[in-house]
């Protein structure tokens, strides 16, 4: 069991997990999002390379349109 912090809240996972797989499990598409992983902004072409480990911190921001 590992614990992440996602947008300031603790989240438990069974073990290390690929970031793209985690986003898909949450129902988050890669369009119109920005992700900070342990304080660093991750480019969309780098998402597949990230494996979430115990103690990692994610900030996921979705772009919202409106008027």
Verbal overview:
The chain has 67 residues and is mainly beta. It has one domain (2-62): Beta-grasp domain (Ubiquitin-like (UB roll)), CATH 3.10.20. The chain is built from one helix and seven strands. The chain has one helix spanning 19-26; strands at 2-6, 9-13, 17-18, 33-37, 40-42, 51-52, 57-62. The strands form two sheets. Strands 2-1-7-4-5 form a five-stranded mixed sheet, with no helix packed on it. A two-stranded antiparallel ribbon has the order 3-6. The longest helix is centred in the middle third of the chain and has 8 residues, at 19-26. The model has no long low-confidence stretch (mean pLDDT 93).
């Amino acid at each position: 069991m590992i614990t992440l912090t996602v947008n300031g809240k603790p989240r438990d996972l069974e073990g290390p997990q690929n970031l793209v797989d985690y986003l898909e499990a949450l129902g988050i598409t890669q369009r119109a999002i920005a992700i900070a992983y342990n304080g660093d902004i991750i480019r969309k072409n780098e998402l597949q390379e990230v494996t979430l480990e115990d103690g990692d911190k994610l900030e996921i921001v979705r772009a919202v349109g409106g008027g």
